[in-house]
Amino acid sequence: MKLYRLLTGPDDSAFCARVEGLLNRGWQLHGSPSITEVGGRGYVAQAIVMEKAGPYPGFQPSSEIEPD
């Protein structure tokens, strides 16, 4: 199973540290980062993925989810 996360936040050293920490725990960059400016401040987004054996804890395929 492939896990996916989209990290977002201000373009600062704290954001870089978040990405670095996840890379050091086995996550991999997926695609290029994106940046935008809002009110004169830069905000970034970076997708990351990880290959994981077996099902993700708590994951249920939509065919197994019972309606309320």
| Count, helices | 1
Span of the ends, CA to CA:
27 Å
| Sheet having the most strands | 3 strands, antiparallel
* Residue-averaged pLDDT: 85
Low-confidence runs: 64-68
Broad shape: elongated
Structural class: alpha+beta
Percent of sequence in beta strands: over 45%
- Secondary-structure element series: EHEE
Order of strands across the main sheet: 1-3-2
Number of strands: 3
In short:
This is DUF1737 domain-containing protein. By secondary structure, the chain is of the alpha+beta class.
Describe what this molecule looks like in 3D.
It is a single chain. The chain is of the alpha+beta class. It is built from one helix and three strands. A hairpin with a 2-residue loop joins strand 2 (28-38) and strand 3.
Q: What's the layout of helices and strands?
A:
Elements lengths: L1 E9 L2 H12 L3 E11 L2 E11 L17
Supply database-style keywords:
68 residues, alpha+beta, 3-stranded antiparallel beta sheet, 46% strand, elongated, disordered C terminus, DUF1737, DUF1737 domain-containing protein
